[in-house]
Structure formats: structure tokens, C-alpha cells
User: Which sequence fits this backbone?
DNA sequence: GGTATAGTTTGACTGCGATCAACAATTTAT
DNA sequence: ATAAATTGTTGATCGCAGTCAAACTATACC
């Protein structure tokens, strides 16, 4: 309780009044650790934030000192529960923004990530809430990623990896798990966006292409693209 | 052409890639000098930016070194033509955002300034353009301020100060020149927003109140509020 | 098990935008 | 015209987030 206690306390509760850099790092670490991988390593983080590895290293120490991340030297970083709350708030804003940009501002689904990124740390809470209302409390962004609630909770869904299904499975495309603009544009142009009904027709062995069928077309997709797709199986 | 030439050149053309602080100062100086007053003085600027006078003084020197402002020591600052271009771009974004927040996001007219301020330095150019399209290339923000074009030009209008008109003059309210949320709320609640038809009924002498008449009501306004209002006179 | 290599951290330093305290210039009042 | 009050600038210093070069693990290979 010496002299620089003030903003630590302010921050504890509202995930909002943190600076851009902090929010950006926490967001990156969240995304890197959300997918199975237990810890995010320095180089990965540095690349995703867009700074040198040494820069990231320094910043990670700061974030650890402030209680946002759990750091094991020479190993990697994870978010503390507090850090995760903050990150989820940024993720919420990002995904709400993506949907807003798509639905209201009529941007293409492969463009929204960039613009959402520019805005995610600047919008006011009222703006966040207003988007949520306007969009009717949505659950997913245009790519199908889940939108966390303000308390950090995530909706429960039945997404499964398309490439893990057996041939003949039918389902609804729910998520295309990438923010790579080119891939999104390609898939979008083929009509492969969340909501579309599809059936798995063929899976070539040894990482080969897969064949899927929609109402209109049959598509042949390379494995790396196919691996981005998650579906809800329908009986 | 030594070693730190890069961003000076980048900035010269696109008013966009400047940091928040610079944009904020230029915006403030623009607003302070737009209304007749030839130069903006340090204290005024400091107050409007929200920093100490000494902080503003230092920053002003930096802005002068970089060619955005014309500085006369102990006198005050004005924008250079280059600085004015940049400022007008921020003003454009701010006012487009205000209208967007009002029309699309359904914020009240007294709320939009705050939220627009949070966003004005972060939006992408595409977002700016999209707002402009969506709103049909508007000319005024919700309070009636003019929206500069991307080249910095301002539409030509016939706004005149209400308090300078003689009793009996009828006109359309075009501009309420303040961003004070309380005053705006008060006037808005009375229906005194741009677009409304009104007639000047009485002007009390010695800075006393004025009386105006609209379709529905007769309003008595203190001089300071009345002075915010600009009208287009109709014959 | 010792060494090359990839990944990580440290140290010295930079730029930016602030602060406060002290000082200087300008303006106003007597 | 000088003193007092106001306004503006400077100097020292801070915190933040970055850089590069050098030093330091951790691990994988032979």
C-alpha cells in the first residue's frame, strides 16, 4: 500500500481502462492459449503483437508483475484468471465489432478483422452494449467464433472439426477458424460460410483433400483449409 | 536526409497515420482558432487537451518542430496549412461519427460527442468512408456543425447568429454550437434541435433573455444559451 | 554427455508524452 | 513606472513500450 496502488485497484474490476498495449498482449495470449496449447511462448507472442522477441519479453515481465499473466522464465506465459477476464472482454468487443461491421456497416466477412482490431481498444462500454442490443445479443461473429458475455462466459455449442467426421456426415457449417483474409475470401466466394448445410463426401488419406457437398456445389478443399471448418452434425 | 526522415514523409500526405496525441492537439487547436480568435494560447490548449500547461508547452514545441503548428513564444499557436489539413480530417471523422452514433446507433444527441471522441483517432479510412456512404454524404453533425470533405473543404451555408437578428425574424435552427452535454440535453428536451422552425419574438436588453417561438411552444432562453444558436433566415 | 542451435532474457539506450518546481515574460493594476 | 498577478517556458525526472546487441538457458543431436 505504498504509492503506486491506485490503478492496480481500478483495473481489477473494469477490464476497460487499460492501455492499448496491455489489452493487445492479453488478447494475443488468450488466442494463443485458447486452442489447446497450454502456454504461449515469447516468440509467438512477439510475432502476433508485432514487436521484437526482446520487446515482448520485457512487456511480459511487466504484465506478470501486474498480475495479468503467469510467467515461467524461458518457458512461456499463460493468463491469470484476472488476465483472462480482461482478455475475454477484448475478445467480446472484437467479435461484436466484427459482426457489427459485417451486418450494419456492410463490410465483407474477410475485411472485418482488420477494422475491428483498430477499434477494439477504443470503443466505450456504451458502444459495446449498443452493438450488442442492435445485433440482438448475438452468440457468434461472422466467422462463427463465440462471443463471450460480459462476465466472460462462453455459450455452449456443439461444434466439431469437420475433418474428424466420417464420410457421409451431414451438418451445418458453424465456424471457419481463421482470420486470414485470403482464405476467408476464397471460402466466402464458394458460399462456404457459417450457416450453410454440407455433407462430407470424401476424405483423401495422408492429408489429402476432402470433398464436401452443399446445396449448389461440390467442393474440393485442401486439408489445411478443411481443418479450419467446424460443423454442427445433424442426424 | 539523414536517418529519421521516414515518418515525416509518410505523414505529409495522409493525415491518418499520426498518433493520438498529435491528432488530439491539432483538433483542439483547430477548434480554438476556428471561431474568430486568431491564436490559441497554451493554457487554453492544455485545458482542452487535459494536460498541464507545461506539458502542453513542451508538446507545442514538438508540434512546431514537426511543422504542424506555427508557434510564437509566450503568445500562442496557430495551425500551419499542413496542420489544418490534418485537423480538418479529424474534425471530419469526429462529426461523421457523431452523426453515425446518432442515426445508426441511436445515441442521444447530447451523448455522441464523448463516444465520437473515443473513436475518432482509431477508425480506419474505410470505416470513415463507409459511414459517409451510409449517411449519404452528410453536411452536418447532429448539432449542426459542418462536416469537412476529405480534402478539407467546408460546405457553404447561410448560418447567422440568432442573437444578432432583429425581433420578428423567422428562420430554421441550423446549429447549436456547443458540446456541453447538459445544455444540449436541455435544448433537445425543448425540441430545440437543428431543423426546427422558429421566430424571434423578443430580445431583452443588457444581455437579458430572449424569447423564441416554435410550432408548439414559446421558449425563454438565457443569453448564454441563445448565443449558441445559429439559424438560416427565411423570408 | 558435450556441443550446436533455437529460443529467451538482460542491459544500455531511444522516443514520446506526461509531471512538478523553478524561473521568465507579459499583462494588469496602482 | 513599478509592483503584482497571470501566463508561459525550461529543466530534471518519470513511466511506458519499444529497439539492438550480447549473454544466457533449454534442448536436441551425434
Assistant:
Amino acid at each position: 500500500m505504498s504509492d503506486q496502488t491506485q490503478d492496480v485497484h481500478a483495473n481489477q474490476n473494469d477490464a476497460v481502462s487499460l492501455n492499448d498495449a496491455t489489452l493487445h498482449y492479453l488478447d494475443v495470449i488468450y488466442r494463443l492459449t485458447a486452442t489447446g496449447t497450454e502456454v504461449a511462448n515469447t516468440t509467438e507472442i512477439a510475432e502476433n503483437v508485432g514487436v521484437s522477441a526482446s520487446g515482448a519479453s520485457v512487456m511480459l515481465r511487466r504484465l506478470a508483475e501486474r498480475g495479468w499473466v503467469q510467467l515461467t522464465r524461458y518457458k512461456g506465459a499463460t493468463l491469470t484468471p484476472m488476465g483472462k477476464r480482461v482478455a475475454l472482454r477484448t475478445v467480446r468487443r472484437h467479435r461484436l465489432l466484427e459482426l457489427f461491421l459485417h451486418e450494419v456497416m456492410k463490410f465483407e466477412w474477410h475485411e472485418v478483422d482488420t477494422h475491428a482490431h483498430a477499434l477494439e481498444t477504443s470503443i466505450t462500454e456504451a458502444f459495446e452494449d449498443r452493438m450488442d442490443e442492435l445485433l440482438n445479443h448475438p452468440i457468434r461473429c461472422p466467422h462463427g467464433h463465440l462471443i463471450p458475455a460480459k462476465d466472460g462466459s462462453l455459450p455452449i455449442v456443439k461444434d466439431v472439426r469437420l475433418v474428424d467426421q466420417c464420410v457421409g456426415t451431414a451438418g451445418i457449417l458453424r465456424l471457419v477458424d481463421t482470420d486470414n483474409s485470403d482464405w476467408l475470401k476464397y471460402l466466402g466466394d464458394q458460399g462456404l460460410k457459417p450457416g450453410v448445410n454440407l455433407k462430407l463426401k470424401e476424405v483423401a488419406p495422408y492429408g489429402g483433400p476432402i470433398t464436401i457437398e452443399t446445396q449448389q456445389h461440390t467442393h474440393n478443399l485442401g486439408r489445411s483449409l478443411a481443418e479450419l471448418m467446424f460443423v454442427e452434425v445433424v442426424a
In short: Residues 30 and 87 of chain B are 6 Å apart (CA to CA). Strands of chain B lie at 69-72, 76-79, 160-161, 170-176, 197-203, 210-213, 218-221, 229-234. Chain B is about 40% helix and 15% strand.
